[in-house]
Amino acid sequence: MNHTMTASSDLAGMRAADPASPKAQASSTPPQQAPARRPVPNVVFSILSVVLLLAAWTAVSHSSLIKPGYLPTPESLWVTLMDLVRNGYQGQPLTEHVKVSLLRTLAGFAAGVLVGVPLGLFTGYNARAGAMISPIMAFIRPIPPIAFIPMAVLYFGLGEVGKIVLIFFVSFNYVQANAHAGAANFPIAYRRASESLGLTRWQTFVRVVLPGALPAIFTGLKVALALSWAVVVAAELVGAQSGLGFMISDAALLFRIPVVFIGIALIGAIGLAMNLALNWLEARIVHWKGR
């Protein structure tokens, strides 16, 4: 009988140790992991930050922390915006003020790009040209654009030319610097590879240097456009009778604070839209960036 019990226990032990047995398979099966949570999209955090900012603004503007009139409530800004849309400002439609500022900005920006990009590529690709131009640009670049407003008024008067020249100076300054950096800092291995393939200097520039400099050029375009849009406000403070900068300065003198806030908000919204447009264009042209 003892032999029978021993055999039965041995058989049970063998079954338990057998990896093919159901119990062994059940015990060796790894525990199922809970499905991984999807990360929260970044757009949710962006919307949340805007909502929190609006909530804080509403709470502070309705409280007694700030005197009435110094910080308009969202409701008063909406009423003022509807009045500006219907009646305009100082006898001109709101769309006219926006259009005038946009035309000034885009005209000066386009002129700066047409001159700055070729010059920057040339000085970046040609060492001697870079040695001649770089000291001059290094001297001019730290000077704030507002410092040139009196000279623009002196040489070009209070008309449109002086404002466009001022914006041209800003856009040219930053576009040229970034185009120069993009052409000067492309890898030397690419230059040697193009020489080994028998490419001429012009072919190397067109097929190697220019595509390699495009990311830096677009960076310069975005910076230049943002600064040009900011400088147009300063340019319209002097002698202008239309534009968002004129609207802000005139409303501030008349203590129409809601109009000032609306002008500032329009500048920010239009600047954001132009930056998104440049990002879209960059994604289509420089599609290899970051890959």
Present the secondary structure layout.
Blueprint: H1 2-17, H2 22-28, H3 42-62, H4 74-87, H5 94-125, H6 127-140, H7 149-156, H8 160-184, H9 188-196, H10 201-235, H11 244-253, H12 257-285
Helix pairs in contact: 4-12, 5-6, 5-8, 5-10, 5-11, 6-8, 7-8, 8-10, 10-11, 10-12, 11-12
Please characterize this protein's 3D structure.
The chain has helices spanning 2-17, 22-28, 42-62, 74-87, 94-125, 127-140, 149-156, 160-184, 188-196, 201-235, 244-253, 257-285. It has 291 residues and is an all-alpha fold. The radius of gyration is 33 Å and the shape is flat.
Order of helix and strand elements from N to C terminus: HHHHHHHHHHHH
Just name the CATH architecture: Orthogonal Bundle
Q: Mean of residue pLDDT? A: 80
Percent range of helical residues: over 70%
Q: So what's the CATH class? A: Mainly Alpha
The CATH fourth-level homologous superfamily:
MetI-like
What is the tally of helical segments? 12
Largest sheet: none
Kindly estimate the percentage of residues that lie in beta strands according to DSSP.
under 5%
Radius of gyration: 33 Å
Please name the CATH topology.
MetI-like fold
CA distance, first residue to last residue: 77 Å
What low-confidence regions span 5 or more consecutive residues with pLDDT below 50? 1-26
Domain count, please report it: 1
Quantity of strands, as a count: 0
Structural class: mainly alpha
Shape: flat
